[in-house]
Amino acid sequence: MTDQTKYQLTEKDLPEAWYNINPDMPASPGPILHPVTKEPVTPEFLSVLFPMRFIQEAVSDQRWIEIPDPVRDVYRLWRPTPLIRARRLEKLLETPAHIYYKNEGVSPVGSHKPNTAVAQAFYAAEEGVHGFTTETGAGQWGSALAMACNFFDLACDVFMVKVSYSQKPYRRIVMETFGAEVTPSPSDRTEFGRKVLAEDPDSPGSLGIAISEAIEAAVKSDGKSKYSLGSVLGPVLMHQTVIGLEALKQFELAGEYPDIVIGCVGGGSNFSGLAFPFLHENFTAGKNTRIIAVEPTACPTLTKGLYTFDYGDTAKMAPIVKMHTLGHSFVPAGIHAGGLRYHGMAPHVCALYDHGDIEARAVQQLGAFAAALQFTRTEGIIPAPETAHAVKVAIDEAIKCREEGISKVIVFNFSGHGLLDLAAYDAYLCGELKDYEHPEEKIKAAIELLPEIPESSIASG
Ligand SMILES: Cc1ncc(COP(=O)(O)O)c(C=O)c1O
């Protein structure tokens, strides 16, 4: 152990390959099924939506996948990101625990999302498509994809969840500054958006609805545009593993090894990015690190959702996957952590949770903001509301160490800064925010709409 605060790597330490967890999965994440036939999808179906290299990564069993040079070149703008020991926070909490965070907020758009946006944009540019359609919740993903598309000369068409579009105008401006087109969802630009608006003109939108609109726009573009997803799918989780791979090297510099790894989960990508390389050590090197996924009580996918097959979007256009789900029609409360308002969860994360390799915890919005304030006032950085959920559990674990008189090494993924989420902090400071429990009846109703899957398709996983 050293007395340093910041553990910095140099550009030459940038990982050369991503870690693909597929060959090490202790339980199958299940098949990807066609939303209409409910049979395993063909590469032809997926290729309407995604670039070919992305599809190949999804089915690859190669443990290490080389990061293409043009992607590493862009990563160099902000990577490797620092691993920081939160000494001042430790002092505030009077904890013997050592708290570290991997600061993904230093990327140009302020979150981990460019780690996959850049890779996906490179693959699309390589195939010569015109651009991407996508959805965004808080606007972090949309900003990342807008930047990446701009670097690779692609158009970027973003459907932004309406509640965030009004709460977070600055992220819309970031996207537009990069040259993207941004539409509040539900919108009248798509058949599905018009249907939602006809039923509920005041719909706050949801990630599920925005995904449906983005998919519809891509499918109807006659091959001009592909669809890009910022989380959930295997290749997205894999692109994020640069985070954990760098962190492993940084812990060597620190002379410590984490006992607990923490990440917030929306679709599961920043969590997986930090956690999977440590899980690899658990699986292959006899390590025993606890891994905790943190979600909001307003959208408690892992802790309260059913582990079954469901559509990835509300309009039933996206593939069906096996995941913990609150039902594809579930519209969560408009909490400020917009990026955590997704009805489902990455199938890999769900399979690991179901198998007992990782833990999950749901936290309330007010507790998350209180923790974020403690972090801001000691470490000087304002966390994104999503990230605040991870901060909360890191603090809870550090307090437990104090109470039990034991020292543990805790690391959490600082997935993004909150400098464009100040309206949320304003609402918190003015006492306007409230906690939400998930409405049990709504989930029950949504779960009744789950698709019925033939045995032969289930067995194909
Ligand atoms: C800062 C930040 N953290 C976390 C998330 C959650 O997404 P994921 O679970 O894919 O990391 C988001 C999503 O928008 C985000 O913007």
| Helix content, binned percent | 40-55%
Outline type: globular
Strand percentage: 15-25%
- Mean pLDDT equals 95
Low-confidence stretches: none
Q: List each distinct ligand once.
A: pyridoxal-5'-phosphate
Looking across the biggest beta sheet, what order are the strands in? 1-4-5-15-10-11-14
How would you describe the oligomerization state of the chains in this entry? Answer: single chain
Number of E-type strands = 15
Q: Describe the biggest sheet?
A: 7 strands, mixed
Distance N terminus to C terminus? 44 Å
The computed structural class is alpha/beta
Number of helices: 20
Whole-number radius of gyration? 20 Å
Could you walk me through the main structural features you see in this protein, from its secondary elements to its overall organization?
- The longest helix has 20 residues, at about 385-405.
- β6 (about 130-135), α6 (about 140-150) and β7 (about 155-160) form a beta-alpha-beta unit.
- The model has no long low-confidence stretch (mean pLDDT about 95).
- About 40% of the residues lie in helices and about 15% in strands.
- Strands 1-4-5-15-10-11-14 form a 7-stranded mixed beta sheet, sandwiched between helices.
- By secondary structure, the protein is α/β, with parallel strands linked by helices.
- It is built from 20 helices and 15 strands.
- The structure holds pyridoxal-5'-phosphate (PLP).
- Pyridoxal-5'-phosphate (PLP) binds near residues 137, 266, 267, 269 and 270.
- Pyridoxal-5'-phosphate binds near residues 111, 137, 141 and 415.
